[in-house]
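Letters spell out the chain; the tokens describe the backbone. To illustrate:

===
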Amino acid sequence: MTGRTLLVIKIGGGAAIDHAAYAHFATDLASMGEPAVIVHGGNAEFSRLSAALGMPPRMITSASGRVTRYTDRATMDAMLMAYCGKVNKTVVGAFQAAGLNAVGLSGMDGRVAAGRRKPMLRGTEDGKPKVLRDDHAGTIETLDPRLVRLLLDADYVPVLTPPALGEDGVPINVDGDKLALALATELGAAALLFFSDTPGLLRDVRDETTLIREIDAADPASALAAADGRMVVKVEAALGAIARGVGRVVFADARVERPVSRALAGEGTVVRG
């Protein structure tokens, strides 16, 4: 990897991001020849599988308005099947087909990402107050990049996904954007690119013409004010990346051809340091 520019790429888990989209990422990266670490989500497949198993998603809204998926043991089993199984191997297959030697991992493997479960999940569900103590969600407390570096140095493409490793070997559901942020900062990435099923950050999430072209990391209050709902976590991750020395952060569209090249050329929402 010596002398080349490392990219950390987070690919969201929306329903519109499918095998064809993964293939576009793979062929684009293969043509560029730069090393990359991929972090992917799997929310749409997770929800589909949970529903098929008779476990529709339970969403808890915190006092601050953030919506979190409640992850009990059975739901975590479904998450492992969706994220570490079907989605991870679909991404790996697309990259292998493009000639990139991808290796699929979770944050648990090699203790890449470790943390602890939250003691309780407090909020409202369907308007009713809830306090849940068996949630498997948590936060990343330590990140060990040695396995990822070994793979990069051997010209593999690491493809990572939550969960992280919890106490006593228990998997914990952690935010994929924060996993990407932690990897980008620990590995000294030149760029952190967030891809989803929108053109970038939108002022109105229902209107793709309301794309925000640029965010000033020097004005975090305005940057966060421009975000809505789930995008708040993404903006926080972007601001954290710039503050920790990542050279470039872009929010871009995962549904287009040559997605990485276009993001690096400035398409989407560019976070300026």
